[in-house]
Amino acid sequence: MNFPTPPIETRYDYYKIIPEFKKFASQYIGKNYLIPDEEKPIVFATIAWMLQDDLVAKEMDFDLQKGILLSGPIGCGKTTLFKLMQKFIGNKNKFGMVSTRQIVSEFMQSGYQILENYSKGNFAHDARKAKVYCFDDLGIETSSKYYGNDCNVMAEILLTRYDLFKEKGLITHLTTNLSAAEIESIYGNRLRSRMREMFNLFGYDQNSTDKRK
């Protein structure tokens, strides 16, 4: 992923927004938030998506009607970036964030209702309201059993959310350490092909530094 060349004019002043974001991020994580040069386009594009900046989206070739699939090695900063977006962007394009491991744990305790909660949504005023989510660390969860029945929890949730994406434009975001081949191996070709429709792929380099060290 690369910056637009030449630079384009948009309704947002990124020369002001990016320093504000870095200052906010440094305060949030409690240390200086460094963005390596090769990762700056990813951070820039993610902010532009959250602001729904159509001019940047066109120049950087991503779709504002799709969610973001943020992939990369362990420790590269995927989860932190989405957590920062939750706080920095405010009410614009709000989303919930939950780890896939937590979802599977809830499923093992409460059963198939959990699949509905994270796809079609919880009941509110006698109707279900689907919610925008970022599912964190797709692939660390395992297939689960409920009363002896095997269930690939995240596959079921994502397939239902795909239907809602097609019907109503429901947005989903993901972070994962998995490659495309690994996603297909774990979740099947059917889901992988639908994920291509649902997500913009923003990928960190496999040699990205572990920022937790």
Question: Please, could you describe this protein's structure?
Answer:
The chain is α/β, with parallel strands linked by helices. The chain has a domain at 63-203: P-loop containing nucleotide triphosphate hydrolases (Rossmann fold, 3-Layer(aba) Sandwich), CATH 3.40.50.300. The chain is 45% helix and 17% strand. The chain contains 9 helices and 9 strands. It has helices at 14-29, 40-50, 54-60, 78-88, 100-110, 113-117, 153-168, 180-187, 189-198, and strands spanning 67-71, 96-99, 122-124, 127-129, 133-138, 144-146, 149-151, 172-176, 199-203. The strands form 3 sheets. Strands 2-5-8-1-9 form a 5-stranded parallel sheet, sandwiched between helices. Helix 7 packs across helix 9 (189-198) and helix 8 packs across helix 9. The radius of gyration is 18 Å and the shape is globular. The two termini are 25 Å apart. The model has no long low-confidence stretch (mean pLDDT 89).
What is the H-and-E element order? HHHEHEHHEEEEEHEHHE
Shape: globular
Number of helices: 9
- The CATH topology assignment of the domain at 63-203 is Rossmann fold
- With strands numbered from the N-terminus, the spatial order across the biggest sheet is 2-5-8-1-9
Going by CATH, the architecture of the domain at 63-203 would be 3-Layer(aba) Sandwich
Main sheet characteristics = 5 strands, parallel
Name of the CATH homologous superfamily of the domain at 63-203: P-loop containing nucleotide triphosphate hydrolases
Q: Please indicate the percent range of residues in DSSP E strands (runs of 2 or more).
A: 15-25%
